[in-house]
Amino acid sequence: MSAVDTINNLGAMLLSGDVEVVDLAGPLGPETPLLKLPPDLGTNTPTIEIHKISQYDENGPWWAWNWLKIGEHSGTHFDAPQHWITGKDYKDGTTDTIPPQNFVAPVNVIDCSKESEANNDFVLTADGVRAWEAKHGAIKSGEWVVMRTDWYKRNHSEDAFLNMDENGPHSPGPSVDCIEYIIEKGAIGWGSETIGTDAGSAATFDPPFPAHNLMHKADRYGLASLSHLDKLPPKGAVIIAAPLKIVNGTGSPTRVLALKPKG
């Protein structure tokens, strides 16, 4: 089958519903949960604001539109390499310079929902990934790896989503050796359903925040605050994760979509 036939078949299957489009993004608005940094680590992103310019009125009689105040890393979002100090020197490391081919790729969905429900501080290790591969097949170079935790079901409440107490945030994520392993496998990016790509306890890891520190050091990408990973198979889906083409952008809110076979 030629590439043209493949594209034509995909188009026909999208129209017939034999290929489903799954929305992996959460709602984006003033109530969207946002990361809260400790005071000694820096300034937080501002609360999302949506302001009306006109709505079929004296400011615009035939149209409605708004202006937004929003941080690059708000809601479901894409992390570019220059988001982290370890990736700051990549010339293709911003949202306007990343090759667009990299925004579409197969995805491996590792289900850690039961473990995360039992232990909010659950950490996925390299051994856990290898066990998943033994059951579902190898992670291939150029593919996404995402961690399903069903954490998105908490995003109706910022307190529940951030899950912080006097000891800091409690949310699942990857270990250092997990990230090292998927980089070795050639993964193009790592994604999670939590507020960021790292575990809540990742500040205590060595190195800290490995999903940021190591992935971006390797010129790879991140997806955070994903939703509905429970609707995807372990393998066999393709995700489209295209950030806004922000000049020198370190990231972008993103409407992440997945294509999967019907059923």
Structure description:
The two termini are 24 Å apart. The protein has helices at residues 3-16, 113-118, 126-136, 158-162, 176-185, 210-217; strands at 19-23, 49-57, 60-69, 77-79, 104-111, 123-124, 144-148, 164-165, 168-169, 173-174, 189-192, 221-224, 237-240, 251-253, 257-261. The protein is globular. Helix content is 21%, strand content 26%. The longest helix is centred in the N-terminal third of the chain and has 14 residues, at 3-16. The strands form 4 sheets. A 9-stranded mixed beta sheet has the order 1-15-13-5-7-11-12-4-14. A two-stranded antiparallel ribbon has the order 2-3. The protein has a two-stranded parallel sheet with strand order 6-10. The protein has 263 residues and is an alpha/beta fold. It is built from 6 helices and 15 strands. α3 crosses α5 (176-185) and α5 packs parallel to α6 (210-217).
**Overall mean pLDDT score?**
97
Radius of gyration: 19 Å
Strand arrangement across the biggest beta sheet: 1-15-13-5-7-11-12-4-14
Ranges where pLDDT stays below 50 over 5 or more residues in a row are none
Short recap of the structure:
The protein is an alpha/beta fold. The protein has 6 helices and 15 strands.
